[in-house]
Amino acid sequence: MQQTAAYWLEKIQHLELPNRVRIMNVCGGHERTVSATGLRTALPARIELIAGPGCPVCICPEEDIYAAIQLALHEPITLVAFGDMLRVPVNLPQREIRTLLEARAAGADIRAIATPLEALQLALAEPKRTVVFFAAGFETTMAPVAAMLAQGAPDNLLLLLSGRRTWPAVSMLLESDNPGFDALIAPGHVATIMGADEWRFVPERHNIPTAIAGFRANTLVAAIYSVLRQIIGNQPFLDNCYTEVVRPGGNSYAQSCLARVLGIVDANWRGIGIIPTSGYRLQPEFQQHDVQAHFPQYADASRKRVGKMPAGCDCARVVLGRINPNQCRLYGVACLPAQPVGPCMVSDEGACRIWWSNGIRNNLRAGTRKAATHG
């Protein structure tokens, strides 16, 4: 029988904690649970929970979004993407088309989907129509995309691939001069696919306590208790607090699909830069599904020079856990869910959107009263 979140909170209250403990939760789903349950206020004040780089919409390269917009506007295709991607703005003047949603309003055939299967069904239903799937996401999204191609997809289904791997971003932080956290809560959904063992490098190479958690409050608080015990005992290890679905080796079929269909490459993260071995590309066997093989003119390398976060936007620092969302200069002032400036205010997995949705309206840099007028 699993213990409740209240049980683990009570046990945490009795721990002899250091003066300050910084715990990073990698996953946007973890951050939703933390914020929605008020967990930060339920924990002792000396425990700081930090939102990490677990939002694929937030780090999707600006040049990929720009290419998707231009493709949809200028080619006779149907472009499909996960709903959040339609609202992410690129760095263009206000008078120009800056989002996929604006491109749809201008006449482009752009449709929101929830799963890769919807892209496949559309391509099968309209065999004479070129369907471009703008596939952004982490391992849990890339695995079903890979399986879809491995099982056989029609030639009229193309991919604009913007997939990323989670652990290299954490590795980059740990290898920096200032990682910014003392313990790690690893993402249960990624570990379900790739296996718990993928995260062993954190305690074994970097001496950082680590626990894998699911999305319910009880497994998340159990993971927090685990890393606190590891800190107190000075014995970092990897603890799997999501054993009902996470196994040491993960899902072998999903991994075989990923290996067959996708190769691993260095990849750009918006506002952060190139992270080694953090991205995916289609293997040669599946190159006929690569949108760049059919429309190479839309791979505009010049966009990489302007593909950072918009002026004044601190999304990259939020993603890296360097600041809290309400320490961004634009949070709640110029950047709001209805009119997002940066991608972290767009996605339900973005820390800024999560904080705003859960009632945190004070901008610590612009002043509470000014930010509240937009609430």
Throw out a few tags for this protein:
alpha/beta, 375 residues, 4-stranded parallel β-sheet, Rossmann fold, disordered C terminus, 2 domains, 36% helix, 5-stranded parallel β-sheet
Q: Helices, strands, pairings?
A:
Elements: H1 5-13, E1 21-27, H2 28-36, H3 39-42, E2 47-54, H4 56-59, H5 62-74, E3 77-82, H6 100-105, E4 110-113, H7 116-125, E5 130-137, H8 139-150, E6 157-163, H9 167-174, E7 183-187, H10 188-194, H11 201-206, E8 210-213, H12 217-233, E9 238-240, H13 252-261, E10 262-269, E11 273-282, H14 291-294, H15 315-319, H16 351-357, H17 368-372
Parallel strand pairs: 1-2, 1-7, 3-4, 3-5, 5-6, 7-8, 8-9
Antiparallel strand pairs: 10-11
Helix pairs in contact: 1-12, 8-13
Q: What does this entry show, briefly?
A:
The chain has 17 helices and 11 strands. The protein is an alpha/beta fold. The protein has 2 domains: 1-305, Rossmann fold (3-Layer(aba) Sandwich), CATH 3.40.50.11740; 315-372, no CATH class.
If you had to describe this structure to a student in words, what would you say it looks like?
- The structure is a single chain.
- The chain is of the alpha/beta class.
- The protein has two domains: 305 residues, Rossmann fold; 58 residues, no CATH class.
- It is 36% helix and 19% strand.
- It contains 17 helices and eleven strands.
- The chain has a five-stranded parallel sheet.
- 52% of the residues are buried.
- The C terminus is likely disordered.
- Distance from N terminus to C terminus (CA atoms, Å) equals 42 Å
- Name given to the CATH architecture of the largest domain: 3-Layer(aba) Sandwich
Q: What is the mean pLDDT?
A: 93
Coarse structural class = alpha/beta
Task: Give the helix level as a range of percent.
Answer: 25-40%
The main sheet comes to: 5 strands, parallel
| Rg from Cα | 21 Å
* CATH domain fold name of the largest domain: Rossmann fold
Encode the helix/strand succession as letters: HEHHEHHEHEHEHEHEHHEHEHEEHHHH
Q: Which stretches are low in confidence, meaning pLDDT under 50 for 5 or more residues running?
A: 368-375
Query: Could you tell me the number of beta strands?
Result: 11
CATH superfamily of the largest domain: HypD, alpha/beta domain 2
Count the DSSP helices. 17
Provide the CATH top-level class of the largest domain: Alpha Beta
Name the beta content range.
15-25%
Number of domains: 2
Mass-distribution shape: globular
| Major sheet strand order | 2-1-7-8-9
